[in-house]
Amino acid sequence: MTQELILTGHGFVYAGIVMAYVVIAKKLMDWRTKDMDDDYEIEENSNAAVGLQRAGLYLGIALGMTGALAGGSHGFTRDVVALAWEGALIVVLLFISRELCDRIILKGIDNDAEAANANTAVGFAEMGVYISSGLILAGAFAGEGGGLLSALVFFVLGQLSLIILYYIYETATPFNIRDEIQAGNAAAGLNAAGMMVALGIILKSSISGPAMGWARDLSAFGVNAAAGLLMLFIFRFIIDWLLLPSTDYETEIKRDRNLAAMALTEGVLLAMAVIIAAVL
After folding, report:
1. Coarse DSSP helix, strand, coil percentages of the chain, rounded to the nearest 5 percent
2. Which of 13, 54, 156, 215 is deepest in the core (most CB within 10 A)?
3. Which residues contact 32 (CB under 8 A, 6 or more apart)?
4. Cα–chain-centroid distance for residue 123?
5. Is 233 in contact with 159 (CB distance < 8 Å)?
């Protein structure tokens, strides 16, 4: 009984550290968007775009820090110190992933300005980047024996995979996803977010695990990332065919802006990603 109470207390401390980084991230975002009162936008204007941005960031932090918590304990004090400094690094890396989203994935779109204008599509897309990056960080920090360099390398490779996924999907889609997101098409934003989070689930699984040497780890990542990308695109079209039998993605996203249809299909895609991650 005493041991269980001690472990419960440790759990509260770990949760408190994660919460502290959520608050730090909030303050950093408040500073970044100092021309806009984010709290007012959420609380008084019911601005879903800003809410989605923040929710994605906070969830990304928690997901990333689950990797720092994974593995065996090295003693409570050492665990707390490790979680504290790895948590700080995870917050920095998530902000870097946001910059990559601004400059590459949503190139030409001012995310902060669009969020201030209640562009929910941008909120969804940015949320997808944060959550997928958090999943990648969870895998990168979870491995035993890899160290900081390994975590950073796989974070970079994960970000490249997300960018490749986005551009392949944009090329394969008969309309411009970025233009639809900029135009405030929430269905397009949710669609892009679903694809990125699905890949993040797969990449987390491929990165996690003990280090086996650079050659084996990198080759395994490359094979799993490529297989995951291929499977996602295959299931993307199977889901379209089976669950939208009387219509198609182009109609539901571009013409109808059907958020309900995208919620359904992205939910199934995430379910398939969970299964793919389990078998790769």
Report:
1. 80, 0, 20
2. 54
3. 112
4. 13
5. no
Distance CA(105)–CA(126), nearest Å, equals: 10
Identify the helix (H) or strand (E) that includes residue 265: helix 259-279
Query: For residue 108, what is the DSSP state?
Result: T
pTM above 0.85, yes or no: yes
Q: Residue 220 is encoded by which pair of tokens? A: 């395994």
> Residue 89, class by beta-carbon neighbours within 10 Å (0-12 exposed, 13-18 middle, 19+ buried)?
middle
The reported pLDDT for the residue numbered 266 is 94
Do residues 221 and 206 touch, judged by C-beta distance below 8 A? yes
**What is d(CA 92, CA 141) in angstroms, rounded to the nearest whole number?**
14
Where exactly are the structural domains of the chain?
2-279
Total residue count of the chain as it appears in this document: 280
Phi and psi at 153, nearest 5°, equal -60, -45
- pLDDT averaged per 10 residues in sequence order, the chain, 280 residues: 75 90 94 85 93 96 88 75 90 93 87 91 95 93 73 91 88 88 95 94 83 78 86 89 85 91 94 89
* Radius of gyration of the CA atoms of the chain, in A: 19
| Per-residue pLDDT at 96 | 94
Vertex 221 angle, CA 219 and 222, to 5°: 65
